[in-house]
Each structure stands twice: as structure tokens, then as C-alpha cells.
Design a protein that fits this description.
Layout lengths: L1 H6 L3 H25 L4 H24 L4 H30 L1
Helix pairs in contact: 2-3, 2-4, 3-4
Length: 98
């Protein structure tokens, strides 16, 4: 988490992390379609947020605009995506065991 915060201070690294955030949101949404349909509503909302804030943060870093609030939202979305992946992995394990 601290490394993410430090990386967001550098514009070049922040741009790649914001692009990664958008890609992680899309990948999480696609994984929820395959693994756990019941998580689709929450992953859709989170993926949409990750795509939007990933694009906004990426664009802000390219233009050099201040982005303190965007950094906070990106960190929060990264934590939410990590928690969703725990649920997705749990669903995958339950499918494999059953």
C-alpha cells in the first residue's frame, strides 16, 4: 500500500498505475462473469469506477494536473478490487471442490 502511494507521486509511474487500475477493473468484471455470476452487480459497479477513475487519473498525470483526490480514490478502488478477488477466488475454489 505504501509503495502504491509513493508510486502515485511520480507522474510517469502514476500514469501506468492508473492504466493498470482500469485494466484490473475490466479484468475483474470479466472474471466475475465466468466464475461468480452472483458477484456481477458489485463487480460491475467497481469495474466501472476503476475504468473511470483509471482514465481520469491517467489523463491528469499526462497533463500534470493536481490529483490528490484521484490518488485517494485509486487507492480505495485497488483495495476493493483486492477484496473482490478474494471472493472470486473463494467462488472458484468452491466450484472446483463441488
Amino acid at each position: 500500500m505504501w509503495e502504491l502511494d509513493r508510486a502515485l507521486e511520480d507522474d510517469t509511474r502514476a500514469a501506468s498505475l492508473f492504466a493498470w487500475l482500469g485494466a484490473a477493473g475490466a479484468f475483474t468484471w470479466l472474471a466475475s462473469i465466468v466464475v461468480a455470476d452472483s458477484l456481477l452487480p458489485i463487480t460491475t459497479i467497481t469495474a466501472l469506477g476503476a475504468l473511470v477513475f483509471g482514465f481520469v487519473g491517467w489523463r491528469a498525470t499526462k497533463h500534470g494536473n493536481p490529483r490528490e483526490a484521484t490518488n485517494f480514490v485509486a487507492t480505495a478502488l485497488a483495495v476493493v478490487l483486492a477484496v473482490l478477488w478474494l471472493f472470486l477466488l473463494g467462488s472458484l475454489l468452491l466450484r472446483l471442490v463441488s
